[in-house]
Amino acid sequence: MSSISTDRATQRYLRRLKGALADVPRPERESILQDVRDHIDEALAQGRDPERILAALGEPRLVAEASRSELDPRARGGVRNPATVLWGVTVALGVLAAVVVSFFLRNPEGLSPEATSVPQGRLSSLVDAYGPGAAVLTLLPALACAGVVLVPDGARRWLMMLIAALLSVLVFTGPFDAGLFLVPMAITAWMGAVIGYASTVTAPRAEALVMRILGALLLVVPVVLVLAGLMVGSFGAAQVPLLLWAVFSVLLAAGYAANSRAAHWVTLAYGLLVLGVAVVDAGILVATLWVGGGVILAMGLYGLLRLPLRSALRVPEAGGEQS
Amino acid sequence: MDRAVEKMATNLRKGVLEYCVLALLDQREMYGLEIANELMERELSASEGSLYPLLARMKQAGSVDARWEAGDGTRSRKYYAITEHGQHQLASFREVWRGIQQQVDGLLGGHHV
């Protein structure tokens, strides 16, 4: 196509618009860019002032925002913005992790299994040992994440990514094994920063396939491990509940792989349940359950927020365009 | 215009803009700038730029269709046309709008006179 929109301000406007539209699906992005370019050309041809034309079009950022809200089927369907959901979950997990680390964890040197054999009297929670200041300290990640609402819209994604990166570092370097308790939060923070602002609200086909398989695997791996334990007879009395749980996990994994929304909801609830068990009564398994629960919760969230709705088949492009 | 008033108008326009575009295209096919000009003239849209994401979505949803046609000179123009699906939507909107308009007018009328 021929373009007469060659003046600098126009070029810069189009460049900025293209950048702002980067996360809009390609066919729509191309269409919008083309239309805006044509709009400017036509308006120039009618003798309108270049600056006025651009001013009337509005900020590229706002055009991109309009595109996102127009083209996001979930936003139109009334489902909340994935970024907001993931942000909320991250803050909640941060608060919960702080509570667990401050008040529930009772052992002097991290979570070594030997800790259980230490007499109760010698075990102390973080707060007992270091005072309420320590509890405030453990809340810092949650507070930092909550602070994301204070920055302007455009910067949130980057702040979320920064927080996710810091959390990831803390996971490995945190004092004692408190780092492990940040794993779920780190996962949801990454999800918030990446898929919360990804564009194509629904996962592209390849990504969806990989994640459905990964999700199903993550749901059955614990079963395989435990069943292997059963084979060598190390679980004795609890066989029946364990088998029930195994059947549940396999069915859920199948549902997840089939991209059933019900399965995603159940996965989410299952993750919350495991996290709950970790908080209330987990003994030496607390860190394992906490991390596992967080991963399951994240898989459920991913399925609900990111996997394509099976019912929402794409409307086929009506008619063709010839250029 | 007062900020709050402007916001009120923006919110109201947002809900009906799509159907105004359909109504315009129901008269005849138009290219982007034409639609933008018609909407601006009627003060139905505050920013021209937001029209194009809307058109992209409407095309995706199948209520409008786009085709290229040689315009004046060497330039070709992208014309938008209403589809049958779009016409159905427009007809439904007409009914809904009449109902709302009547009720709201009735409510406001008492104080307005």
Descriptive terms for the model:
heterodimer, A: 323 residues, mainly alpha, 3 domains, 0% strand, elongated, B: 113 residues, alpha+beta, Arc Repressor Mutant, subunit A, three-stranded antiparallel beta sheet, 3 strands, globular
Characterization of the model:
The complex is a heterodimer of chains A (323) and B (113). Chain A has 323 residues and is mainly alpha-helical. Chain A folds into 3 domains: 8-71, no CATH class; 81-201, no CATH class; 202-323, no CATH class. Chain A has helices spanning 8-20, 26-45, 50-57, 60-71, 73-76, 82-104, 126-130, 132-146, 153-173, 183-194, 205-231, 239-257, 261-280, 286-305. The radius of gyration of chain A is 25 Å and the shape is elongated. Chain B is an alpha+beta fold. Chain B has a single domain, classed as Winged helix-like DNA-binding domain superfamily/Winged helix DNA-binding domain (Arc Repressor Mutant, subunit A). In chain B, 66% of the residues lie in helices and 14% in strands. Chain B has helices at 3-27, 32-41, 51-61, 84-112, and strands at 30-31, 64-70, 76-82. Chain B has a 3-stranded antiparallel beta sheet with strand order 1-3-2. In chain B, α1 crosses α4. The mean pLDDT of chain B is 88.
List low-pLDDT spans of chain A: 74-79, 108-122, 311-323
**How many helical elements of chain B?**
4
**Total domain units of chain A:** 3
Give the biggest beta sheet of chain B: 3 strands, antiparallel
Give the full name of the CATH homologous superfamily of chain B.
Winged helix-like DNA-binding domain superfamily/Winged helix DNA-binding domain
Kindly estimate the percentage of residues of chain A that lie in beta strands according to DSSP.
under 5%
CATH topology of chain B: Arc Repressor Mutant, subunit A
Q: Whole-number radius of gyration of chain B?
A: 16 Å
Helix fraction of chain A? 55-70%
Measured distance between first and last alpha carbons of chain B: 24 Å
Q: What is the CATH class of chain B?
A: Mainly Alpha
Shape descriptor of chain A reads: elongated
Coarse morphology of chain B: globular
The number of domains of chain B? 1
Query: Structural class of the secondary elements of chain B?
Result: alpha+beta
Query: What is the strand tally of chain B?
Result: 3
